[in-house]
Automatic annotation (TrEMBL):
It comes from Ilumatobacter coccineus (strain NBRC 103263 / KCTC 29153 / YM16-304). This is Methyltransferase FkbM domain-containing protein. InterPro entries: FkbM_mtfrase, SAM-dependent_MTase, SAM-dependent_MTases_sf. Residues 61-218 form the Methyltransferase FkbM domain. NCBIfam families: fkbM_fam. Pfam families: Methyltransf_21.
Length: 309
């Protein structure tokens, strides 16, 4: 199956085949909102970082899910190595399929980043596959799978893929993942985008700040319209937010690049995606929630299409 979403102009590929608009939560979101609606501030920050890295850089995508950011990196730029870590077997399989369908070289590994190497339980969220977590009780979960965890320091040393850019989105386990990458952060000084969830009364933000303490990183909140105010580390802002961690103070060139990519992403609207496969989409929605979910699914698509026009 093929289902294509538009990519920002100026890259090596005009569109990305996400294969199926129904199988996973991220694929369904991209069907409804396309790239224009998918974490636009975060996406613009990563694209700006890739552009500044120059040809031949490495990107490590930690908690890659279907590998969307890995695919954007490989499709729009000229990296030497894209490493995507996704411990959920079924989702990692989708990431590999998307890479293959688009002719992209992405090293997808079924590993979970943490502060030590061990076998751990990955709790599979009942509600959505984007919330699978190593943290027990993070979301309601009746099932789990055993996964291998790894320290990013060890993995990056073994693959010789010292990253210039990293993204870490691991559903509440970001601080241990950063603890396991301290040598990389200290010696290689990559740009890092990290998710900071508004949970546990701000303690997740505090733990992430503690994990990078003493490394000289500056933190910037990736709000929909960032102020680019500098912090010593992420802070709880009352809602879920990604943060940009830079080894040096942000400069005007980065902010201008973020603005350019933000504008290009805003043009990647649902009306530029493939035509919706009506029968498969209807059946998938019915399996998820019956007639009410079918109606809700098509109402969301109509609203997204109207916004795009």
């Amino acid at each position: 199956m093929t289902y294509r979403i538009a990519l920002p102009v100026g890259g090596r590929l005009p569109s990305l085949d996400i294969i199926d608009p129904n199988s996973s939560a991220v694929q369904r979101f991209l069907r409804r909102e396309a790239l224009a609606g998918y974490e636009p501030s975060t996406a613009a920050a990563l694209l700006a970082s890739f552009g500044r890295a120059g040809a031949g850089f490495s990107f490590v995508d930690v908690g890659a899910n279907i590998g969307l950011y890995s695919a954007l990196c490989a499709a729009l730029f000229e990296p030497s190595h894209v490493l995507a870590l996704e411990p959920t077997p079924s989702i990692a399989a989708i990431a590999r399929q998307i890479a293959d369908a688009n002719g992209l070289t992405i090293d997808v590994q079924e590993l979970a980043a943490s502060s030590s190497a061990r076998v751990a339980s990955l709790h599979l969220a009942d509600a959505a596959d984007v919330s699978n977590s190593l943290e027990s009780g993070f979301k309601a979960s009746e099932q789990s799978v055993e996964v291998q965890t790894v320290r990013l320091d060890d993995l990056i040393e073994s693959t010789h893929a010292a990253p210039l850019v990293m993204k870490i989105d691991v559903e509440g386990h970001e601080a241990p993942a950063l603890e396991g990458a301290r040598t990389v952060l200290e010696r290689r000084r990559p740009v890092v985008v990290v998710e900071v969830l508004n949970r546990r009364n701000g303690r997740l933000a505090e733990a992430i700040s503690a994990a990078i303490a003493g490394l000289g990183y500056r933190a910037y909140e990736l709000a929909p319209q960032p102020t680019w105010d500098e912090h010593d580390g992420p802070v709880s802002v009352g809602e879920h937010r990604d943060w940009l961690l830079l080894p040096d103070p942000i400069d005007d060139a980065f902010i201008e690049a973020w603005s350019r990519w933000s504008e290009r992403l805003s043009a990647c609207t649902p009306d530029r995606s493939s035509r919706l496969p009506i029968i498969r989409t209807t059946l998938a929605a019915f399996r998820r929630g019956g007639v009410s979910e079918v109606k809700a699914s098509f109402d969301r698509f109509r609203r997204a299409s109207r916004r795009a026009t």
